[in-house]
Each structure stands twice: as structure tokens, then as C-alpha cells.
Amino acid sequence: MLTQIPGLRPSLVRWRVWAQLGLYLYLLPRLLVVSTAPFAARWNMSSVSVPPPKCLQKPLAVPHRHMFGPGPSNVPRRILEAGALPVIGHMHPEIFEIMSDIKIGIQYIFQTRNSMTLAVSGTGHSAMECAIFNSVEPGESVLTAVNGIWGERAADMAERIGARVNTIVAAPGGFFTNAEIEKALLKHRPVLFFIAHGESSTGVLHPLDGIGQLCLKYNCLFLVDSVASIGGTPLCMDQLGIDILYTGSQKVLNAPPGTAPISFSERACQKIFNRRTKPVSFSLDLSWLANYWGCDGKPSRVYHHTGPVTAFYSLREGLAVLVEEGLENSWERHQKVAEYFHDGLESMGLKLFVKEKKARLPTVTTIVAPHGYDVKEITAYIMKTHNLEISGGLGPSVGLVLRVGLMGCNSSKANVDMVLAALKDALKHCHRSKV
Ligand code: PMP
């Protein structure tokens, strides 16, 4: 507003107003630059030196593929859709209810009444570490049965926490007698004995009868890996006297990888909750996990980690599918399909890697690498031509075998026929050396 100052001429007043306006116009942008300089330095787009990646500006593309390797298996629509449900809080009452369903589902597939039953937020390896890190203290003796890669890995994990580790070793494809196991238990007096029920690197289904009693006799916890076997072949935790049993979500359960069911017996809990030292891992500490999963009888749950809620939905549905089919039906289906597959392979002139029929894992079949062929060329050819995954060996079986996994919904005669046709085609078209 122009104010009339008494005694000043109107032309002089106008001149002063224009001068003031000019000054403001000159100063304002400069003031703005000075006052916002620190923010500008932080937010100025020209300071971004890593450009937005082009690949992330394209739509996500994932192929449909027949997942007939040793895992992960195909995930049926029902389970995929469960994983796409809305995210809710990891401490909301509804998620606790879902976690309770999962607990009961695991008790069913493990055939156990252990209340210390839950799912680790992680893959099978996390469950292995959860079992070993909680049940073993530095300096204690551990025995692992090595007839493939999983015994080696368990030994590695126990060594990392300062345990005294001993192994019994069988050739890939082989397994142990109870007499051999007892001899080693007597010699090494371990606090924990590890064995893989389904050795997915070699295709061996290890007999477990009587080992639980031996472990009890020598005051040792009995730890069993059932990542590749649970749901596909009989395994009853309580009847077998297993103290710690774990599996993964991505094989017979047909859920995506990322959660790992695990259960601990009363005897295992006694040892774990009377430790002198804290377990080395905070995220796998059973006292924390037991509280998060409502296994410790405490009235309230305390935040430990953000549970992967959508992975819990998928796991719940994977368990629900197995509950609907019934364990015995699933065991029988996997066995029949495996036998049909094995007969088909032998009639093609291929040889099974595990010689003893009863020691053949019905979920993962190992085929002796066809003579004169390069295993990698066969698997690559089948992937490219048939959009189908089968794999080569792993650890001690590298170069020795082809591995085919038909697990959960993938275990069907139609899928066997598809694999046999792909193998025939590969043997016809892949390079074969004369020697
Ligand atoms: N144990 C066995 C017998 C397995 O087959 C696997 C997975 N191939 C694992 C443990 C490890 O599971 P993950 O890859 O989910 O960590």
C-alpha cells in the first residue's frame, strides 16, 4: 500500500516505492538460494551419480518351467495365491492364528506331539543352523554321518561354533548300519548325532529304525534332516525317537523357498534351555523363536524379528494341501510314481545310482551319469528344448549322476513320462564320446 507521507511530493513517494520493490526483487532469489542451499545439496537431482537402472524399468518376466530338479518344486496356484494375500503385521492376532495352524500342520507332517514346533524364517540351511547352534555349545562333541553333502555341511556348521566334530563316512550312494553308528557313538560320545533321512545329493533314503534308541542309550540328541523326504516317504518323529527334525518349504510342501519347519523334543529342550553359554546366533536363538511362535507358555509375545508373513500364508497352504491328501496317501503316491519312474529309466538302459531298492529316495532319483555324455550338456539341452529342469550332481556326486526330483504336486506318472521323453531326446541329440 502506498502511504502518503506529509510533506513529501507524490513523485518522490512513487520513486521510493519502485526503489524498494527493486531491492526486494534483487534480494529474494539470493536469500532463497542461501537458506535452501543445504537441502539443495542433499536433494539436487544432479547430485545422483548412479543412474536409475534400465532393467528395473522393464516389466518383471518369469518363465513357466517344469521344476523337476531336487528343489524348488512347482508351486500350485492355490499356494501362489495365498502368498499374494495382503500383508498384515507380524504381531497381529490373525498372524498368530495362522502361525498356530502352521504349528499344528507341522506336528501332523512330522508326526510329533512336541509343543516346541515352529517354522524358522529362512531356508533349510537356517533350520540346520537353528538345530545345531541351539543344541551344541563350544567344545562339545558332535558326530555327523556323511554319505553326501548334507553331513559335510552339518559338520562345517558345528565346527564354526567351536564343537569337536567327528564324522562317519560312506561312499556316495551308500548308507550306515546301526552297528557302525553305535560304534562311533561309543567312540566319540557326542552330544548330537546328525543324519540326513533323504540325502538329496546322492538319492539315498537312510533307514532310521533303532537309531533313536541308540542315541538315547548314549545320551546324545538325535538330529534328522528331512528337507528332501518329509511328506514323500514315511517318517514319524516321535516313534523314531528323533530329538530335532527339520525340513524346508520348497520340496514336497510345494511352497516357495524361505520357511523351514522344525521341531524339538522335550529332551532337546532340556539341553537347550540349560545351556551355560548363549547360542551364537541371535536370530536363531530358540528362546526367542519359542516366544514368537507361542511355544514357551508365556502370556505375551515380544518382538524378535519381522516374520515373513506372506511366506507364512504359503507355508500354511502347502501344509493344508498335504493335510487334505493325507500323509499315507502322499507317501504311497510318491512311492508308486518313483517305482514307475525307476522302471522307465531301467527300460531305457539307464542305471540307478542307489543299488539297494529300499534305500532309494522316492522324491529325488539319482541316475548314473550316462556313459560318454557330459551331464551339463544333457541338463542344459533339456532345459532349453523341454523347458524342464533336472540337475547334475551336488558335492560328492558331481559328475556322477543326474538328479530328478518329483515332489508334492509334481509327483505324477504324467510328469514321469515327460521326463523320460526329455531324457530320450537328450541322449539322441547330445554329444556322445566314443570312449
Ligand atoms: N538338506 C537337504 C537334504 C536338502 O536337499 C537341502 C536343499 N537342497 C537342504 C538341506 C538345504 O535347504 P535350502 O537350500 O532350503 O537351504
Structure summary:
The chain is α/β, with parallel strands linked by helices. The chain has helices spanning 10-43, 77-83, 93-110, 124-135, 149-160, 178-188, 211-217, 237-240, 266-272, 286-292, 309-325, 327-347, 375-386, 413-429, and strands at 66-67, 116-121, 141-146, 164-169, 192-196, 198-199, 204-205, 221-225, 244-246, 259-264, 364-368, 388-389, 391-392, 401-405. Helix 3 (93-110) packs across helix 11 (309-325).
Give the number of DSSP strands.
Answer: 14
Q: How would you sum up the major sheet?
A: 7 strands, mixed
The low-confidence runs, each spanning 5 or more residues with pLDDT under 50, are 1-8
- In order across it, which strands form the biggest sheet? 2-10-9-8-5-3-4
Chemical compounds bound to the protein: 4'-deoxy-4'-aminopyridoxal-5'-phosphate
Counting H and I runs of at least 4 residues, what is the number of helices? Answer: 14
**Strand coverage percent:** 5-15%
Instruction: Give the rounded overall mean pLDDT.
Output: 93
Rg calc: 31 Å
Characterize the overall form. globular
Helix content: 40-55%
Order of helices and strands: HEHHEHEHEHEEEHEHEEHHHHEHEEEH
Structural class: alpha/beta
Distance between the termini: 103 Å
Can you put this structure into words, describing what you see?
With 435 residues, the chain is an alpha/beta fold. It contains 14 helices and 14 strands. A 7-stranded mixed sheet has the order 2-10-9-8-5-3-4, sandwiched between helices. It has a 3-stranded antiparallel sheet with strand order 11-14-13, covered by helices on one side. Helix 2 packs antiparallel against helix 11 and helix 3 crosses helix 11. The protein is globular. 4'-deoxy-4'-aminopyridoxal-5'-phosphate binds next to helix 4.
